[in-house]
UniProtKB/TrEMBL annotation:
Role summary: Catalyzes the transfer of a formyl group from 10-formyltetrahydrofolate to 5-phospho-ribosyl-glycinamide (GAR), producing 5-phospho-ribosyl-N-formylglycinamide (FGAR) and tetrahydrofolate.
Name of the protein: Phosphoribosylglycinamide formyltransferase
Residues at which (6R)-10-formyltetrahydrofolate binds: R71, N113
Pfam entry (one): Formyl_trans_N
Classification via PANTHER family: PHOSPHORIBOSYLGLYCINAMIDE FORMYLTRANSFERASE
Recorded GO MF terms: phosphoribosylglycinamide formyltransferase activity
Species lineage: Bacteria, Bacillati, Actinomycetota, Actinomycetes, Micrococcales
HAMAP family the UniProt entry points to: PurN
Catalytic activity field: N(1)-(5-phospho-beta-D-ribosyl)glycinamide + (6R)-10-formyltetrahydrofolate = N(2)-formyl-N(1)-(5-phospho-beta-D-ribosyl)glycinamide + (6S)-5,6,7,8-tetrahydrofolate + H(+)
Keyword line: Purine biosynthesis, Transferase
Length: 216
């Protein structure tokens, strides 16, 4: 009888309610999922994600931008805080700030984020609104590996959501969020179990060891 592989260590960064983190934590109750959340880092003292982390017994850290003299110092503090949890994957789950160079240098190729549109279409802060304004009949959500740009990282996975004739930004976004949580859970689990390689714009799932082009 062989032992099951050790789950990969995941640190979640969240600024809001933590609904995506909860979905991951629920999935991780199954030992075969392949990933284990070992810490939550937030930039908001009142983030709902903190309550969920306490419910599941997950260690937390709050790193507020207002507590630092400059954005550069905050960037360094975020990278140091993430590193204290020794993660193999970093998941941005409703984290409302871009990660700076210190985090990208330290965890490049291992940071995941989601966007409520089918990238490269409709990047930026208003992906749902822009899809409606553009007359899209189908939009959705995308999981990417974070790079230095805004929603420009290599695409890992996508899921489509139909745009209905009577949709508002709120109704469409709510349906996308439901699909997005499932996509994140599935994608994170696959990466954790199977490994991945990032080469340029391509993400290949199934590599034995996670690497990025810069690490090769």
């Amino acid at each position: 009888m062989t032992n099951a592989p050790r789950p990969r260590r995941v640190v979640v960064l969240a600024s809001g309610t933590g609904s995506t983190m909860r979905a991951v934590l629920e999935a991780a109750r199954d030992e075969s999922y392949g990933a284990r959340v070992v810490g939550l880092v937030t930039d908001k003292e009142g983030a709902g994600a903190l309550d969920i982390a306490r419910e599941f017994g997950i260690p937390t850290a709050v790193v507020r931008l207002a507590d630092f003299e400059s954005r550069a110092l905050w960037d360094q503090a975020i990278a140091r805080t993430i590193a204290t949890f020794d993660p193999e994957l970093v998941l941005l789950a409703g984290f409302m700030r871009m990660l700076g160079e210190p985090s990208l240098e330290r965890f490049g190729g291992r940071i995941l984020n989601t966007h409520p549109a089918l990238l490269p279409a409709y990047p930026g802060a208003h992906g749902v609104r822009d899809a409606l304004a553009g007359g899209a009949k189908v939009t959705g959500c995308t999981v990417i590996v974070v790079d230095h740009g805004v929603d420009t990282g290599p695409i890992v996975a996508q899921a489509a959501v139909e745009v209905r004739d009577d949709d508002t930004e709120a109704t469409l976004h709510e349906r996308i969020k439901g699909v997005e949580r499932g996509l994140v859970v599935r994608t994170l689990g696959r990466l954790a179990r199977e490994g991945w390689t990032v080469t340029g714009r391509s993400v290949r799932i199934g590599a034995a060891t996670p690497t990025s082009e810069e690490e090769e």
